[in-house]
Amino acid sequence: MSLLERVRTKGDSEPDRESGSPALVDDKHKAQPAGPPTSAAAPPAAAPAAPTRLAAALAAAHAAEQSAVLPANPPGWRERAERPREPQVAGLELRVWHHPQYAAIKGEVTQALLQEYSDVGQAPRERLVVRIGELCSVVLEALGISITRSDRQRLVEQLISDVLGLGPLEMMLKDPEISEIMINGPDDVYVERLGRVYRYPAKFDSDGHLMQIIDRIVSSIGRRVDESSPMVDARLKDGSRVNVIIPPLSLHGPVVTIRRFSKDPYTIEDLIGFGTLTADMATFLRACVRARRNILISGGTGSGKTTTLNVLSGWIPNDERIITIEDAAELQLRQEHVVTLESRPSNIEGRGRVTIRDLVLNSLRMRPDRIVVGEVRGGEALDMLQAMNTGHDGSLTTVHANSPADSLARLETQVLMAGVELPSRAIREQIGSAINLVVQQARLRDGTRRIVAISEVQGFDGEKVQLADIFQFIQRGVDDEGKVIGDFQPCQAPKCLEDLAIAGEKIDRSMFAPSPKSKASAGETAA
Predict the structure, then answer these.
(1) Per-residue pLDDT tens for 486-499?
(2) d(Cα 266, Cα 54) in Å, to the nearest integer?
(3) Taking a C-beta distance cutoff of 8 angstroms, is the pair 253, 247 a contact?
């Protein structure tokens, strides 16, 4: 007898809940006689059936969802950033995944699906969705659970999310204000919302449940994670970047970190509105991109390098052929002629690995007008510098570093990782002639992201690469609410203004005139 048949038989053979079967209904929710005691001849007045615990939980979830619905005209980013924020609990996150009745229903439905389909992952999704709805009705009837049609619909949606989707991750991925999801084992989930980190009330059933979700994510792009390969980078369908590390390397169970990106890529107007940079800084950067200057974007983890790279890449003319190279495809360029390349790890036999360096070398044979590398981490730095110095100008890339000077020192170290024995002087000469501009990005203590410096590379003086700050963000303190106080200041006019004008990008020199505040700051620094 199949599991589904047993479920039906069980439903037919079980005694009624009123006859004493505990089923999955709490005793305190059973119907009680209403009104004063009656005579033995008169039957007690019928009371309305009380809701089951599952129905009550679903009703609470529905009420929380309704209360968390955004207004018709949601406030702008300034209002959201300035209003007091409290740790996000309940609200949309209130679910019934861990309710004992839900667990029982999910177990029955999952087993019935596995009996009908040997490989659920290969079955048509439309058919599975319909079948889950049918099985849900059968199981609810078999377990003697009565819920409303709307509650049943929400229950079916949760089952579909758990059985076919990403389970508890689904609700987090629907929240547009969540930019980072950090899962430290099945019971420990954190999110970053509007620059602040909060604990999230969702949980996974077990390590095995979390591993099932991980397998769905990595298998969708042809990758794997197991004890022999316990680390992997992947991406979701919406472009979100995923990093996974599992035991034995992780002692907390499977650990998942998801970096989310806006469905609609940010524009320069968005960044100006967020306070990431000023309109003058944007004008200068736009001219540099269109004039084919080689730009290096530097910053720490989570500082917004990829977002800035995406915005700068948007200024590349539409008639140019662009080759993007990344570990996990994240850039969202809107030009027509874009070729996206993605590195690949080795297979289970240790073969087939394709590195960023391999792709950079291959891209040189693909007739690129521009090469955009998501991030340089190793020997590919040498090939990138050589490409910039051999006619592939206008290229862009990012690097992890804390200042413009540190970014150039990091490049020098990465060139040495290529296995080519070059003297430091030769490497610095290459850097001094290849890189034209360094854009330094930072994530400040209040969660905001700023371009804290735009520096021009002015060549190699025989000992070190010369850098000159064009714009700076000057932090002046922190207010009572913990928000960083500061402003952007021009420092000096760049030497490349004439080259920009020759390329057709004329810029008013007056925008680089240091303000009295910046002069005072320079004087304080010198003192």
Answers:
(1) 999 999 999 999 99
(2) 41
(3) yes
DSSP symbol at 507: -
State the pLDDT at residue 5.
53
CA end-to-end span of the chain: 87
Cβ(289)–Cβ(316) under 8 Å? yes
Is residue 161's pLDDT more than 90? no
Residue whose C-alpha is closest to residue 181's, from 150, 156, 214, 148: 214
Burial class of residue 522 in the structure, from the number of CB atoms within 10 Å of its CB (0-12 exposed, 13-18 middle, 19+ buried): middle
Residue 175: both structure tokens together: 């929240």
pTM, to two decimals: 0.69
- Cα distance between residue 398 and residue 439, in whole Å: 9
**What's the rounded Cα separation, in Å, for the pair 36 and 411?**
86
Give residue 429's identity as a one-letter amino acid code. Answer: E
Nearest of 120, 125, 151 to residue 55 by alpha carbon: 151
**CA 383, 385, 391: angle at the middle one, nearest 5?**
100
pLDDT at 60: 57
Within 10 angstroms of residue 215's Cβ, the number of other Cβ atoms is 15
- Give the count of beta carbons closer than 10 Å to the beta carbon of residue 472: 21
Q: What tens digit of pLDDT does each residue of 274-327 get? A: 999 999 999 999 999 999 999 999 999 888 898 999 999 999 999 999 999 988
Cβ count within 10 A of residue 423? 8
Q: Which two tokens stand for residue 229?
A: 């390969």
Write the pLDDT tens digit of every residue in 196-211. 889 998 888 888 889 9
pLDDT of 359 higher than 90: yes
Q: At 402, is the secondary structure helix, strand, or coil?
A: coil
441, two tokens: 């990005």
Phi and psi torsions of 338, nearest 5°: -125, 130
pLDDT per residue as tens digits for the range 401-425: 999 999 999 999 999 998 888 899 9
Percent of the chain scoring above 90 in pLDDT: 38
CB distance 395 to 346 below 8 Å: no
Residues 6+ apart with CB under 8 A from 210: 183, 185, 186, 204, 253, 254, 256
Q: What angle do CA 7, 8, 12 make, to 5 degrees?
A: 115
H/E segment holding residue 473: strand 465-478
